[in-house]
Design brief:
By secondary structure, this protein is of the alpha/beta class. The chain is built from 14 helices and 22 strands. α1 packs parallel to α9 and α3 (47-65) runs parallel beside α6. The structure holds flavin-adenine dinucleotide and nicotinamide-adenine-dinucleotide. Flavin-adenine dinucleotide (FAD) binds next to α1, β2, α2, α3 and β4.
């Protein structure tokens, strides 16, 4: 029987990063993945394929809606070839998953394909697709089994008309009317993909606003812009029924006033969140506890109630984000190696990759109010930037929330072109506990979208932006 210092179950961004860090720290490492390709949700059916389709459809939308204003004339029809877009997306996925295999080999990490399940606290059975079972011994095990789409009790996901993000990433036709249940990250990103391709898109959201966990101002701005792009929003709507036939789907809901409303579409994307995935792990054989939400329970060291078993990523509490899972992978590897790592969960940024993009880090205004913290606000509109005028991307703003007394930056909320990349500056600043004035006194290259961060900081410091 093979023995390892660490066995990792699941090869998503949590698992494969943990494996690399364990190997870097000199541990004999195994990684177990039930699918043929490595990379988990993120690389196969999540972050990467969704961004590939967002990028392809962004080009298409620019070609039909913006090229002319830039003086680019195209003779003849511009057509979107969905099959080619999906094929390209798959090539991008294949390149990325092959890259993880390369990294496993480079770091001498042993890869096992099959379903990992605990035999006991120090042994893991691996059941291959042909049914053969192999057992390995592991001093430590890291559970990194991620998540699966969740649904509502009355919805049957038939994967044909009623679909999750996984099917939405490989449709064979452009929907005529895509009805999206859930105005969160997946609903908006994939809703925008199909809207750009010409589908009618209706988003039904239970809460009074889209992206409800982010700052209210971002939800308002993004909804305004997406509405202009033709997406229809039905907030404060409670869906109570979804019925599919061969070619269409009917969704019933109660509106804000409690009145029944009906939506008819040819596809219904259910994007109401994801659930931790522990099926088949046989956690009971190792004595590992889960909580009432099905998450593997961990302490501040990400250690389960069984001391040599850890858990990371979507399968535990916290934001379901690839970069959060990665930080936790490194954290656990270093903990097992006897180091004392640290994760600042307040500074895990959140991003929505629509266009305009949305990005945020730290506290929202609602959170600061609730905590009774006095704060000041500096906001700067993207439209006032030379760079935005040059590119034509004038929607959005950067908003900085700073402590009213100390000027320390407490939250940064952005909507606009490339803010997914701009948020890194806010993370660095907040990690070093910068004041708004610190940011405002740093040179930002001109002309860039990043100048909005400096201007918002000037506005927060003492209300003296230069260009608005
Ligand atoms: P996962 O990536 O889910 O990986 C878990 C792996 O474990 C899977 O490969 C699974 O097959 C394997 N596994 C499970 N059980 C077993 C078992 N018993 N034996 C062997 N293997 C097993 N996050 C972002 O930060 N940015 C984004 O842009 C983004 N976009 C997304 C878009 C979509 C459409 C979706 C669905 C998600 C997106 N996410 C994004 C979320 C991100 O994908 C997850 O947060 C991330 O993948 C979690 O990583 P993980 O390692 O915890 O688990
Ligand atoms: P989400 O939590 O982002 O959004 C779910 C939405 O559905 C929420 O707005 C919620 O209020 C709404 N909702 C819940 N029940 C409802 C109901 N009965 N009727 C109508 N609306 C309802 O979840 P998601 O969009 O499914 O994404 C799942 C996870 O994947 C998220 O945790 C997210 O972090 C991750 N993800 C991240 C990215 C990114 O980082 N860009 C992209 C995609 C997915």
């Amino acid at each position: 029987m093979s023995s390892f210092d660490v066995a990792i179950i699941g090869s998503g961004p949590g698992g494969y990063v943990a494996a690399i860090r364990c190997a870097q720290l000199g541990m004999k490492t195994a990684i177990i993945e039930k699918y043929d390709t490595l990379g988990g949700t993120c690389l196969n059916v999540g972050c990467i394929p969704s961004k590939a389709l967002l990028d392809s459809t962004h080009h298409y939308h620019d070609a039909i809606a913006h090229f002319e204003e830039h003086g680019i004339e195209i003779s003849g029809d511009i057509k979107a070839n969905l099959k080619k877009m999906i094929d390209r997306k798959q090539q991008v996925v294949d390149q990325n998953t092959a890259g993880i295999k390369f990294l496993m080999d480079k770091n001498k990490i042993e890869v096992f394909h099959g379903i990992g399940s605990f035999k006991d606290a120090t042994h893991v059975n691996i059941t291959a697709s042909d049914g053969t079972i192999q057992t390995i011994e592991a001093k430590n095990t890291i559970i990194a089994t991620g998540s699966k789409p969740s649904s509502l009790p009355f919805i049957k996901i038939d994967k044909k008309r009623v679909i999750t993000s996984t099917e939405a990433l490989r449709l064979t036709e452009i929907p005529k009317h895509l009805v999206v249940i859930g105005g969160g990250v997946i609903g908006l990103e994939l809703g925008q993909v199909y809207r750009r391709l010409g589908a009618e898109v209706s988003v039904i959201e239970y809460m009074d606003r889209i992206i409800p966990t982010m700052d209210r101002s971002l939800a308002k701005e993004l909804q305004k812009v997406l509405k202009k792009q033709g997406i229809k929003f039905y907030t404060s709507h409670k869906v109570n029924g979804v019925t599919a036939s061969a070619n269409d789907v009917t969704i019933t809901a109660d509106n804000k006033k409690g009145e029944p409303v009906e939506f008819k579409g040819d596809y219904c994307l259910v994007s109401v969140g994801r659930r931790p995935y522990t099926d088949g792990l046989a956690l009971d054989k190792a004595g590992v506890n889960v909580n009432e939400r099905g998450q593997v329970e961990v302490n501040e060291h990400l250690q389960t109630n069984v001391s040599n078993i850890y858990a990371i990523g979507d399968v535990i509490k916290g934001a379901m984000l690839a970069h959060k899972a990665e930080e936790e992978g490194v954290f656990v590897a270093e903990t097992i190696a006897g180091q004392k790592p640290h994760i600042n969960y307040n500074l895990i940024p959140g991003v929505v990759y629509t266009w305009p993009e949305v990005a945020a880090v730290g506290k929202t205004e609602d959170e600061l109010k609730e905590a009774g913290i006095e704060y000041k606000t500096g906001q700067f509109p993207m439209r006032a930037l030379g760079r935005s005028r040059a590119s034509g991307d004038i929607d959005g703003f950067v908003k900085i929330l700073a402590d009213a007394k100390t000027d320390e930056v407490l939250g940064v909320h952005m909507c606009g072109a490339r803010v997914a990349d701009l948020i890194a500056e806010a993370v660095v600043a907040m990690e070093f506990r910068a004041s708004a004035e610190d940011i405002s006194r740093m040179s930002h290259a001109h002309p860039t979208y990043a100048e909005a961060v400096k201007e918002a900081a000037l506005a927060a410091t003492d209300n003296r932006p230069l260009h608005s």
